[in-house]
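User: For documentation purposes, I need each entry recorded in a consistent format: the amino acid sequence on its own, followed directly by the corresponding C-alpha cells. There are two entries in this batch. Please keep commentary to a minimum and don't merge the entries.

Assistant: Recorded as requested. Entry 1:
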Amino acid sequence: MGLVVSTVARANIKSIDPSPALAMDGVHHFVSVSDVPGCNLVGIIVADEEVFADGKVHCVGQVIGVVLAETQQLARQAAQLVHVDYEELPPIITIEQALEADSYLGTHWKLRKGDCEPAFANSDFVKEGEIRVGGQEHFYLETQACLVVPGEEDEVTLYASSQNPALSQEMAATILGIPANRVVCRVKRMGGGFGGKESRNSVLSAAAAVAAKVSGRPVRFMLDRDEDMVVTGQRAPFLARYKVGFNKDGKFTALDVQLYCNAGWTADLSNAVLSKAVRNIDHCYNWPNLHVTGRACRTNLPSNTAFRGFGAPQAALCVDAVVSDVAAWCGMPLEEVCEKNIGRTGDMTAGGQVLENDNTLRCFHEVKERADFSALKATATEFNKVNRWKKRGISVMPTRFAVAFHPAHKNQAGALVLVYLDGSVLLTHGGTEMGQGLHTKMVQVCSRELAIPASRIFLSETSTNTVPNTSPTAASMSTDLNGQAVKIACEQIRERLLPYRTKNPEGTWNDWVKSAYYDRVSLSATGFFKAPLAMLSSKTAGVELPAYMYFAYGAACTVVEVDTLTGDTQVLRTDIVMDVGTSLNPAIDIGQVGCLNPAIDIGQVGCLNPAIDI
C-alpha cells in the first residue's frame, strides 16, 4: 500500500486523477474517501479527523488516498503518479499565526492557586519573558506498519505496530461500518513507540482496512522514514509567556503563565497534552501563588500527538528556563535557587494535590554528592579559563513526574491467565511491548504469584479478542495497571489450586493442575484492576480531574561542552539519581532511566556516560 498525500498545507481539492498509476503493471486499486463504507471521521477523543481527505486538505502529508500494488516499492512509485489538482488557500503554520487568527481547539484550560496580583505587588522583583519549546520527531526504529487480513462475514484482523490495539479496533470498525466484534487487533511487539503509535498508527490502519475491504486481499504497509516523518505528528511545540515574582533571596512568590501548544489540524491528544502541561506547570517547585491558562492552537500541520512525558517535559522546560532567569536576575547560582524552592512533603501542587513523601530534595542532594558537583564545577571553570573557543557548562536540575492517566476511566487494565494440563501457562494482558520490558515484568508477576519458574510462562501477544477495551500503553502506567490485573488473575488460580496443594503438599505444580482439572475446576481466570483515584476539584476549566497515583522523583547533573565557532555540543557526563519506588526489574529500569529521561530526551542528546542510581 502506497500513500497519496497532500503536497500543500491548505487547499480545496479540485480533482484527483489516479489513471497514470493504475496503468502500471502490478497496480490494482486506488482507494479514497468514495470507497469508505462506514464513517470517514475518527479520533482518539474527538472524531474530527478524516482518514481520507474529503474535498479539502488541511496539512502537508494528509492522506488523500492509497494505491494497492503487488510490492511496497511499486505501490510507492505508483502513488507518486496520482495527480491531484489543488486550489490553494492561506495556511496557518505557527502558534503566533493561530493566535492572530483566533484558531483554537478544545478546552481553554485555567488553573489558579493563591492570588498572584497581591503577591506581585509585594515581591522584590517582577519580571516577564517568553519561552519557546520546539517539536520533536519520535524516530522510532520501526516506522508505522500494519497488516490487514480480511476474513469471512466481515471479519478483519489487524497485525499492527500500535500502542493502542483497542483504538485500532475501534477505528477500523468505524470506517468499515461494522461492529467491533468483527475486528481483532493483534500486537506482537513494536520497534519503539514513544507515544507516536498511541493514535497515529490506528488512523493509517483504518485506511488499510478500507483497502483490504475493497480489494478482498490482505493489505500491508510499512512507511519509509521520509513518509513517516511527513505523515505523522510530533511532540507539540509550546509557547509560554510568563510573569514571575521573586525576592532578593531567590524565593519565588508568584508565577503567571499563558501556555499555547501547536496542535496541528485535528484535536488528537493535544487537549490532554495541554491539560497535563497546565497541571504540571509548577514542575517540582513550590509556587505559593500560581495562575496558568492553556490553549491548543489549530494549525495546518500534521496532528501533533503523544510523546513520552505527554506535556510535562514542555512544562518542565518552560519552568526550568524561568528558574534560570530568576537565578541570573538575582546573581545567584542556579543550584541554590533550585534548592530554595524545591517542593517538600506537605506542599500543594498546582493541581491541588498535597505532596506525600516527596523525595525530590533528597535526590537533588544525592546527585550533587555522587557527582561531586563542586569539583566538576571547579574543573569546568578552570577549563573555560584556558580554552578560548570551547567552553564547558555544568548544571544540576531536579524533576518530579506525575503518574496517572488524566481521564479517570483510562486507569484500568485486564489480564487473562490460562493454565494447560502440562502445567504451562499462557499469559495475556492489555499492555503492549515496545522494547520497554513490559512483558518481562508481567511474566515476573505471574511467576511470583503462581510460584512457578518464568520458563513455564509464555506471553504470546496483546490482542483485543483476549483482553477487550484496553487502555493505551502510555502514561508510565502500564506496569502498575496491567501488573495488578495479572496479579488478581493469578490469585484466583492460586486459590482454586489451594485445596489440592493442601491435600498433596508433596506434589508438584503439574499434579495440582491435573487434580483440579479432573475435579472440573476452571484453570483460566481473568483479572481486572481499576486504580483507586481520588477526584480533585482543581479549578481547571471547571473540569474535575483525578489525582495522580503517585510521583516519581529525580535529579540529574550534566556537563556539556560547546564549540563556540561551530555550535557543536557534546554531553560529556550525566549523573542521574531517580526514586522509582520498588523496582520490579532494576536492570530494565536502569535502561529506562538512562535512555528515556524526558529532560535528556527533549534537550541536547550526545554521548552519555550515565552513572545511574535507583
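Entry 2:
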Amino acid sequence: KMEGGRMEEDAVEYHIYPVNLQEESNLTSLSHIYLHHLSQLEYVRKYIWQHDPISLEMISSTDGNPAHLFGKSRVAENVEDEWFITFLLRELSKKFDVIIRIFDNDGEFLLIEAANQLPRWLNPETSQYRFWIYRGEFHLIPLPKTPTELMIIPTNMTSAAAIELIKGSAVDTLASPKIQAALDDRLTQWPKKVTSDTHHAVGLIPKSIAAILQVHPRFIASAVRYFYYRTPTTFKHAHRLKRFGPCNESDLVPTKIRMTRNLFAQIKTQRATFPPNFPSVPPSKVGSPYEKALDIGCKILAGMEIFYQENSLKTNFKIEDEESYAWDSDSRWEEYKSHLIASRYFQDEMPGSKLYHILESKARKNYLISRQNSSRMTLEDWVPSPSKEIDRILSLPHLEPPPHASYDESDSEAWMEISEEELEKLLQGASRDPKNPKSAEKAEELISDFEKFVGSSSGISGIRNAAKPKREKKPFDINDFFDGLGLSGKNSGNFGNFGNNELDDDESEGDSEDDFEMDSEGDFEDEDFNEISKLMAQMDAQLEEVPGISRQNFSKEDSMREDVLRNFLE
C-alpha cells in the first residue's frame, strides 16, 4: 500500500437519505446540521482518525435513487474506524429522521458480522439495497412470500423502493432480534472503546511540534501515516527539515503523545536510518528510556515534516499554473505518473516525443484538476488547511508546549504481545460454534494438523516427516468436511451465503409448500446462474463418458452434496 494509492481501497461508504426531503437544495444545510451535531460529542472530539473522518456531499436524484448525502472515508489499516463510523451513523439515525445504508469494499460488512443469524435466502447477490439503519435499528427487506407481497416488494430492489418500504407499514422490515443482538454486541463497545483503544507514548520532539499537537492532537495520525508510507522522494523533506529544523538535542522536550494503539504499532515497528541533521543518542544513554523516546520522536519529526511539505504543495497550486507548478518536488505527481507508465498510458512513446508531450500535458491538467478542493464537508471543515494552520500556530509570539513528561508516563506495551496459549484461545474461540458441540473438537483437530505441518521439513517430493504414522484409508466424508469448516450439514446447501444462515421460526415459514416460494431455484432467474448451469451440464455429460463414473452411482443426498462442494470450489 502507498499513500494515495491502494489505501483508497480500504474505505467505507455511507448514504444518508433524509425522510420526506422537500428540496435537494436543503441537503447542503442538512449536512452542516448532521456534522455539527456529531462534532459536539465529547468522544468524537477525542477520537483520532486513522485517515478520514466522516464526510458528506450532496448526490442529486437519479432514476431509482433519491437525492441524498453520500460519504466515503478511508480507514486504511484500522478497521475500528469503520465500526466507529457505523456507531455514529446509527446514533445519527436516532436523532434525525434519516434512513442510512453503509458498506465497505468487502460489501455488506454488517451482514457478514451477523452471518450466523441470517435467513437462508440471503446471500451477496440478493442482499443489495436490502439492509438499512433507521431510527437506531437495523432493517432487512424480505423476499416476497405471498402474491400480495410480490405486488409490494419489487424483485429488482432499488434505493427508492427500499426507503418507501422501510418508512411505510405495508411490510415488516425490522430485522430479527438475533440480527439486532449480533450487531449490538459489536457496536456496544463504543464509545468506551475510544478510551480503551488509546495509547500514550513519551517522545522527544521539538517544542514546535509539541505545541502543534497540543492544539491539534489528531495531527499525530497524519505524521505517523506520512512516515509509515514514506518514499525515497518524500523522505527528502526529512533530510532538508525546512519547516521544523534545524533540530538540536536542546530543542527537544519529552512529551506525552496520545494516539490509537494501531498508530503506535505502526510507528513502533518501523525501522529507519535518519539523516545527520537529526538528533542522535549519546553513548551514555544507549539502551535507556531516553533512546526509546528519541526513536519515537525522530519518527514523528520526520512524519510531521513530510506531512507539512506535501500539504503545502496541495494547497498552494493553481490550475492555470501548469507551466510554473513545481512538478519535480511533488511526490504525489511522481506516484501518479508511475501508475500511468505502468498502465501504458504513454503508449510506449519515448520521453521528449511530440505524442509523449501531448499525453503528459493532458495528464498534468487532469492531475491538477483532481486536486482541487471538492464540495465535501467533514467533521473537521472548520479547521483550516493543515499547512496553513501549522504556519499560524508557529507564528504565535509565545509557543506553549505541554509540560515535560517523565519517561515512565508511557503506557504499557504488553497489549502488543500475545502468548502461544492466548493465540490458541483466540483461534478456538473464533472457530467454535455454540450450536455444534463437535465444532470445538474439529477446530482443535485443524489447529493440531496445522502445527504438525509447520513443524515438518520439506524436500523435493514435498513434506517429509521423521516418523510417518500409518493412516487408515477411509472414504472422503463430505459431512466431516463441512463440520470442519464450522458448517452444519443442514446449512451446507447454502454455503455460498454469508454464513451458517440460521433460520428463525418466522423466517422458515416461507419455505413451506403452501407459501409462495421465491428462492434461488424458483422464479428468480439469473443469467449468470443459467450460464453456469449450462457449463456444469456439459461437465456432467463428459463425466458420463468416463468408465466407472456415472450419476447412477450417486444417491440423491450425495448429488446435493456434490452441488454444494462444486459451489464452494467455484
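Summary note for entry 2:
Confidence is low (pLDDT under 50) at residues 1-8, 485-497, 499-525, 548-570.
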